[in-house]
Amino acid sequence: MTLVARTRVQGIETLTLDAPATRNALSAALVGELTDALSDCAEDADVRAVVLTHTGNTFSAGADLRDPPAPDTFVAVLRQIVELPRPVVARVTGHVRAGGLGLLAACDITAAATPATFAFTEVRIGVAPAVISLPLLPRTDPRALTRYYLTGERFDAPEAARIGLLTTTGDDVDAVLAPVLDGLRRSSPQALTETKRLLTARVLETFDRDATHLTALSARLFSSAPAREGMTAFLERRDPAWVL
After folding, report:
1. How many CA atoms lie within 13 A of 55 on its CB side?
2. I need a surface site. Which of 48, 121, 154, 179 has the fewest CB within 10 A?
3. What pTM does this model have?
4. Which residues is 168 bridged to in the sheet?
5. Orientation of helix 71-83 relative to helix 189-222, angle to 10°
6. SUPFAM superfamilies from the entry (predicted)?
7. Angle at the Cα of 120 (from 115 to 126), degrees rounded to 5?
């Protein structure tokens, strides 16, 4: 079963996360397929840009708690998106949680339909948004991240745009993205590659400085007793023991 579908129209390669039964949770298998698809895009001179989108009502629910990728594997795919020599555009028509927000932050341009919702739910299962901070911290409003990291609150698409998580939002996400994709098709491939390199330099500095530490932190937290309780509670659809 294919978990990442691929299509191409006029030089725009669309990669579609296609595991709606698990709300496109980031399993080891899905992340592996996404890695392979991105590698193919990087090597194909006919790809002008990449659109990352999804089936179902959720862009990604975050890590698949039954089959999560290793933290260093997820860091690698985030960096792959940032370093890809083609612009990567996220197209969101549903909800985004936890690790899915890391995918968004790694993309160069992000657009979501107005009904989409977002939440950093890690604290509610006993862990922290560790590795996804690598692209998030350099690109997102720090005061807003403080609130949403610490509380796990849900917020809407206009708020996501205000804090820098989204580039743009609108009722019709395809109408919003039409001029973006047209602009990318009209741009020189060499110019796009070099301009992206300028724009992502600070993000990659964060990866170089913090990836090892945050990968270790993520692994430690996910193997902890509070995380086991939080994940068990989530799967059993009950409150974890620490809820007052």
Report:
1. 12
2. 179
3. 0.96
4. 111
5. 160
6. ClpP/crotonase (SSF52096)
7. 145
